[in-house]
């Protein structure tokens, strides 16, 4: 599905202003509602109605939260419930058509058919701007639904506060308990036109104590509202084609900061000016890479680049303040604080991509991780963090990969030894996800964890990344300890079956085992066929245990050509048929490096063939063009790296493995003022094989380049051919 959203945001913006197309609850009758998964980004292309426009969204995730502060313009009789998709006129939602929908970088437009209202959205970093064109009516309304949310449930909203400052300005906050356990978002909302009246409806259950606020009629024109379940409305008289505009600013700290953000980022009411500013910002960022390729491939490439520059998101007010993991107010001194770190996904390619194209932001992202560590009561780097919380989703401690990669590639300018200490401390948190067993036994017993094998494999890689950082800093005692730990993957290798396999506490392998199955086999979002290749830090040793280059090559061939029956991924939301080639799962992350492993065999041309096959099969310029969740830009980063002809198989190393470029040529405009050019001579759909590669005129024979080869500037030239070259 992709799970991306079509609304307005700016690069790495704190506001993601986008339409919601339904209101599904996370649970039904006390159980998980599987259909809610379709709405991780709030928007499902197949839907026929829109329920409103909210200000926060994740891009490409397989779990969700957010959807804060939903706004919906309506006319006629006031309705404060959303109604149903089958009969939208029973509520405030509206039918719409894709024929009347426009989505551009930094801008979204749609006609709301039921009330004949045109909605337009744009944004700055911390402010969303709405423009609603109304018909003539003395019953025009703008609804602010403070109960709406993504992955919503009955008790998700903990508390809501609204203050009507005057007839054009509203401030407040909402606290929720969801994927982020303790999340408070402050807002300031300003109208371009005074409303004639306003009110609220409370859906709160009867409370044991309500104080003495009952002395007032709080439902109509009352300026201070508080409760768990609130909806606000604002009434207007409108002339034909009259535009009512809204500025909606967010802050993690306070209402006052939200108001300051609004006044600084959008001083007036010129919607088109804000839109042009957003699009100019996007053009500047997207022009960091200029590609020449076919039209479809160009659309795919810049769509990928756009998605890669959405997350992580800014989590700092204009005055530098942000809420920390300790729920205290901190000030980011000399850096922008970021959130939305989907690290199990993004350490693989997105963060390495930033070290080339966004090194300044990458530096700030590592500083944000270090601030997270300093504020953590558990003394751990982020696992999957957003909005001053760690939601602990997925496995591994992949912050260490991002940090090691940034320091080894010269991106991070903070205290590298302190960063290494944070990595070490995180990796020794014994009561987190089996780390104690991993340290004591060299593996995690299957009885102790349902994802014992994938955790062991991922910890082994992360420990290798720590070892590389320690080596760079000449802390050889740390290097020796963690390079030894990085070999723990061997303890789950079962020579008898030829697969990574769950091991019991008594040292024997689990008897009931199916390497195709994704359930109950010790793996998270994957199976042993894919995870058995997850030793990105030591392909040479993996090839050796699998019987040498010839057998390893044959095994890779089988992965890409076998048939994986539906039953083997029926219980995994994130793996669908669309994201699978043979038994290789590209629509999920653990196998993203696998196509490049042929480079360590005698048949590197098979890397070239498979990479091009994946590029063409898994990415299309259509509404359903992604073979899996974009996962905060990881799927997109894989596409861009592979289109350019190289990929970071093992972040924490300064080496990129070469593949088969999809571009005819590309220019990377680097922050240091230098340019790196990729050129693919005679590249075509048939000419997918590499005859030879030159770096600045000198031939490369080992199928790899270094990070410094890129950052020093120069030219990488591929000579393409319709025939494979064996060596």
Automatic annotation (TrEMBL):
Cross-referenced Pfam families: Glyco_hydro_92 (PF07971), Glyco_hydro_92N (PF17678)
Named cofactor requirement(s): Ca(2+)
Span of domain Glycosyl hydrolase family 92 N-terminal: 2-251
Keyword entries, A-Z: Calcium, Hydrolase
SUPFAM superfamilies (alphabetical): Six-hairpin glycosidases (SSF48208)
Statement: the UniProt record of this protein carries the keyword Hydrolase: yes
KW Translocase (keyword) present: no
Glycosyl hydrolase family domain location: 257-721
GO molecular function: hydrolase activity
Subunit structure and binding partners: Monomer.
PANTHER family noted in UniProt: PEPTIDE N-GLYCANASE PNGASE -RELATED, SECRETED PROTEIN
Identification of the protein by name: Sugar hydrolase
Source organism: Pedobacter mendelii
């Amino acid at each position: 599905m992709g799970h991306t959203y079509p609304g307005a945001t700016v690069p790495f913006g704190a506001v993601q202003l986008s339409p919601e197309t339904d209101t599904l609850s996370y649970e039904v009758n006390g159980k998980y509602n599987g259909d809610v998964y379709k709405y991780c980004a709030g928007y499902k292309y197949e839907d026929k109605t829109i329920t409103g426009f909210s200000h926060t969204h994740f891009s490409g995730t397989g779990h969700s939260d957010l959807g804060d502060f939903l706004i919906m313009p309506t006319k006629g009789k006031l309705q404060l419930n959303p109604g149903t998709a089958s009969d939208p006129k029973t509520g405030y939602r509206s039918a719409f058509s894709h024929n009347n929908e426009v989505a551009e970088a930094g801008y979204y437009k749609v006609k709301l058919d039921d009330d004949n209202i045109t909605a337009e959205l744009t944004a700055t970093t911390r402010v969303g701007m709405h423009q609603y064109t109304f018909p003539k009516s003395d019953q025009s309304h703008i609804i602010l639904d403070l109960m709406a949310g993504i992955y919503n449930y009955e008790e998700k909203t903990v508390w809501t506060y609204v203050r009507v400052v005057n007839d054009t300005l509203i401030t407040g906050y909402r606290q929720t308990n969801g994927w982020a356990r303790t999340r408070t978002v402050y807002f300031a909302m300003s109208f371009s036109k005074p409303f004639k009246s306003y009110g609220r409806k409370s859906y709160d259950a009867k409370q044991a104590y309500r104080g003495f606020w009952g002395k007032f009629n709080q439902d109509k024109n009352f300026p201070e509202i508080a409760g768990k379940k609130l909806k606000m409305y604002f009434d207007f008289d409108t002339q034909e084609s009259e535009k009512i505009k809204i500025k909606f600013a967010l802050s993690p700290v306070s209402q006052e900061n939200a108001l300051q953000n609004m006044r600084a980022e959008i001083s007036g009411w010129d919607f088109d000016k804000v839109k042009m500013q957003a699009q100019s910002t996007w053009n500047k960022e997207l022009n960091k890479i200029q590609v020449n390729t076919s039209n479809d491939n160009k659309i795919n490439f810049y769509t990928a680049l756009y998605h890669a520059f959405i997350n992580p998101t800014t989590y700092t007010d204009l005055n530098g303040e942000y809420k920390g993991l300790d729920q205290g107010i901190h000030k980011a001194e000399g850096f922008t604080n970021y959130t939305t770190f989907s690290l199990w996904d993004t350490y693989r390619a997105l963060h390495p991509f930033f070290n080339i194209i966004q090194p300044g932001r990458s530096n700030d992202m590592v500083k944000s991780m270090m601030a997270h560590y300093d504020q953590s009561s558990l003394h751990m780097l982020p696992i999957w963090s957003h909005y001053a919380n760690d939601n602990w989703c997925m496995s591994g401690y992949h912050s260490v990969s991002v940090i090691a990669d940034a320091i080894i590639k010269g991106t991070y300018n903070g205290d590298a030894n302190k960063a290494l200490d944070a990595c070490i401390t995180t990796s020794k948190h014994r009561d987190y996800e089996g780390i104690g067993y991993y340290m004591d036994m060299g593996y995690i017993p299957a009885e102790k964890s349902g994802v014992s094998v994938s955790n062991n494999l991922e910890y082994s890689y992360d420990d290798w990344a720590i070892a590389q950082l320690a080596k760079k800093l000449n802390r050889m005692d740390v290097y020796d300890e963690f390079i030894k730990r990085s070999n723990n993957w061997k303890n789950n290798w079962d020579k008898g079956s030829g697969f990574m396999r769950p091991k019991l506490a008594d040292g024997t392998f689990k008897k009931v085992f199916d390497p195709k199955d994704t359930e109950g086999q010790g793996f998270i979002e994957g199976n042993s066929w894919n995870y058995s290749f997850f030793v990105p830090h030591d392909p040479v040793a993996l090839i050796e245990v699998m019987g040498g280059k010839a057998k390893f090559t044959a095994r890779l061939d089988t992965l890409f050509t076998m048939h994986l029956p539906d039953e083997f991924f029926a219980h995994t939301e994130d793996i669908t048929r669309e994201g699978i080639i043979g038994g290789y799962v590209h629509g999920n992350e653990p196998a993203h490096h696998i196509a490049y492993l042929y480079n360590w065999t005698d048949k590197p041309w098979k890397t070239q063939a498979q990479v091009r096959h994946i590029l063409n099969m898994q990415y299309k310029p259509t509404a359903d063009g992604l073979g899996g969740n974009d996962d905060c830009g990881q799927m997109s980063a894989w596409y861009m790296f592979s289109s350019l002809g190289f990929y970071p198989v093992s972040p924490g190393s300064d080496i990129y493995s070469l593949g088969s470029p999809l571009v005819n040529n590309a220019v990377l405009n680097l922050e240091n003022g230098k340019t790196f050019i990729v050129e693919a001579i005679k590249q075509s759909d048939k000419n997918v094989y590499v005859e030879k590669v030159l770096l600045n005129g000198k031939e490369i024979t080992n199928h790899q380049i270094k990070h410094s080869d890129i950052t020093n500037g120069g030219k990488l030239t591929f000579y393409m051919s319709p025939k494979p070259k064996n060596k």
